[in-house]
Amino acid sequence: MADHLSSGFVGCPDGRVSLRHTAAGLYRWFGAQFLQMATDAGAEEYRFGLAIARETLARADYFEAFPDGATSITPDGHGRGYCLPPAVCYHVFDQFAGRGFDRPITVTAESPCFREADRKAGGAGRLWEFTMREVVFVGASTWVAARREEWMSRTRDFAVSLGLVGSLEPATDPFFGVTGRGKRLLQQVKGLKYELRLAVGEDSLPVASFNLHETFFGQRFAMTLADGVDAHSGCVAFGLERWVLAFLEQRGPAAAEAVLRVPSRR
After folding, report:
1. The domain spanning residue 202 has which CATH number?
2. CB burial class (10 A; 0-12, 13-18, 19+) of residue 188?
3. Crossing angle for the helix pair 141-161 and 21-40, nearest 10 degrees?
4. Distances from the Cα of 146 to the Cαs of 42, 89, 129, 137, 159, in angstroms?
5. 189-199 per-residue burial string, b: 16 or more CB within 10 A, e: under 16
6. Which of 125, 194, 136, 196 is nearest to 160 (CA)?
7. Which three-class secondary structure state does DSSP give residue 111?
8. Of the given ranges (45-59, 75-89, 116-130, 139-153), which has the lowest mean pLDDT?
9. Mean model confidence pLDDT for the chain
10. 224 occurs within a structural domain
11. pLDDT tens digits for 250-266?
12. Which pLDDT belongs to residue 8?
């Protein structure tokens, strides 16, 4: 992996990263691009607080699937425990828990996220603390699947327009957890998760994931459609720091500076 200190991308051994100069500008630029893509696609923008209740993650079966995956923080003094969010979509499902939908919805939000497993993994591409922009869909199965296909195509075209080399691939790990090897294999066979992987050195790094949850979260958060059936959901997730790292690896700081000089579409 190339040394990006001159561009301002500095990885820390504890799973964090600091960005300055070109890297910081590129981070803001990618953030603006993904927000614009989401709003252009009709997503309603939300902002959630950082902490998420442990009971919300438990309702999503997060601890069963990832026993050591969440970073706990101090209780609020009323007996409720909180965690730092491992993904943005849990905030969305908590927001709409118990809701019935007479039409499909698309929501987007950005937040810092934290994953203990990636803290242990090490390396600038696997961070404990990172920034995620998600676009979440809730609706009927065919509608959710169509939105995911659109985003896979849209994101691939975006990467190509930047001259980035990568590929869309079925993921070997599901976005949401289930226990048991058989269930995980079934998720892979059904194509519930794809990743856009961009070349980074001699390896590749997943910079975006495209996920179908079927009725997994619809059932757990009591989200239903107009006819009373469980809602399907899906999401697209972008890791901003990973996009910055992949761009600097493939195109270099001069290309990054050139991108930053182009007036924003906003």
Report:
1. 3.30.930.10
2. middle
3. 140
4. 14, 19, 31, 10, 20
5. eeebbbbbbbe
6. 196
7. strand
8. 116-130
9. 88
10. yes
11. 999 999 999 998 765 54
12. 87
Question: Residue 220 falls within a domain, yes or no?
Answer: yes
**98: alpha, beta or left, given left = phi > 0 and alpha = psi -120 to 50?**
left
Q: Is residue 111 part of a domain?
A: yes
User: How much is the pLDDT for 81?
Assistant: 92
C-alpha atoms less than 13 angstroms from C-alpha of 165 in its C-beta half-sphere: 9
Q: Could you tell me which residue, 231 or 181, shows the higher pLDDT? A: 231
Residue 89 lies in a domain: yes
Tokens of 211: 């996920």
| Token pair belonging to 234 | 């899906």
Please give the Cα distance from 138 to 98 (Å, whole number): 13
| 102 half-sphere exposure, CB direction, 13 A CA radius | 0
Rounded to 5°, angle at Cα 177 from 172 and 183: 70
CA atoms within 13 A on the CB side of 231: 28
- Domain count for the chain, please give it: 1
pLDDT (tens digit per residue) in 177-194: 555 444 555 556 577 899
Residue 78 has pLDDT above 80, yes or no: no
Q: Which of 151, 164, 179 is nearest to 247 (CA)?
A: 164
Reading the block at residue 207, the tokens are 């910079």
Q: How far apart are CA 156 and CA 61, in angstroms?
A: 31
What's the distance, Cα to Cα, between the start and end of the chain in Å? 33
The Cα–Cα gap between 46 and 176 comes to: 21
Range of the domain at 51: 5-261
Global confidence as pTM:
0.90
